[in-house]
Design brief:
single chain, 201 residues, mainly alpha, Arp2/3 complex 21 kDa subunit ARPC3, 2% strand, globular, disordered C terminus
């Protein structure tokens, strides 16, 4: 099982960097789908990466940091959206899902052996970055838009192909970064183990 490690200045820097990364991924803007209330964005890719690289607690903290800045009015969501209004609109459930999704993604990705594997990383991205986010996003979207839950869930399947592509990208980026620079990960390097596999939680 994963274990929360001591928080230090480097962790704070990582959290801030990933909050900024998720914000930057919103710069290309949002792509409305069939005039729907919830657009397609790249920011869920950042949520997945926050979990796979920072782990559960720090990944969730990065998303929470971003959303706190959005809450006070900074236009950091795709399409330049910000303010308290986004937390009561159709996308509110997805924003909640991002926080928990990053946590679940990190919990799965950081479980098992120290070295990330493609199958565990992919499973983490799909479970946390897609299923958990949908589990919160779809019901709250249905509630806000006053549409039947089944209809909302059906129309939301249009997002699934793109989210699966993001999961593949997040997996590839995570494994590539691990090979190139494992110290970017929020894991403790053990001097008694070899480089690349030498981390403990």
């Amino acid at each position: 099982m994963f274990k929360q490690a001591t928080w230090d200045v480097r962790d704070t820097t990582r959290v801030a960097a990933f909050a900024a990364l998720i914000a930057v991924l919103g710069l290309p803007g949002a792509l409305p789908v069939f005039g729907g209330a919830v657009p397609i964005t790249l920011q869920t890719l950042g949520v997945m990466l926050a979990g796979t690289i920072l782990g559960p607690w720090r990944g969730a903290a990065a998303v929470l940091t971003l959303e706190a800045l959005v809450l006070v009015g900074l236009p950091l969501l795709s399409g330049g959206r910000g303010g308290a209004g986004v937390f009561v609109g159709p996308t509110a459930g997805y924003l909640i899902g991002w926080i928990l999704g990053a946590f679940v993604t990190g919990a799965i990705a950081f479980s098992g052996s120290a070295r990330p594997t493609w199958w565990r990383t992919a499973a983490a991205c799909v479970t946390g970055g897609i299923l958990v986010v949908y589990a919160f996003g779809i019901p709250i979207q249905a509630l806000v838009t006053r549409l039947p839950l089944a209809e909302t869930a059906l129309t939301s399947t249009v997002f699934l192909p793109g989210d699966l592509v993001k999961a593949v990208l997040a997996t590839a980026i995570t494994l590539t970064l691990w090979r190139a620079y494992p110290r970017a990960f929020s894991r403790r390097i053990s001097p008694t183990r070899s480089r690349g596999a030498g981390v403990t939680r």
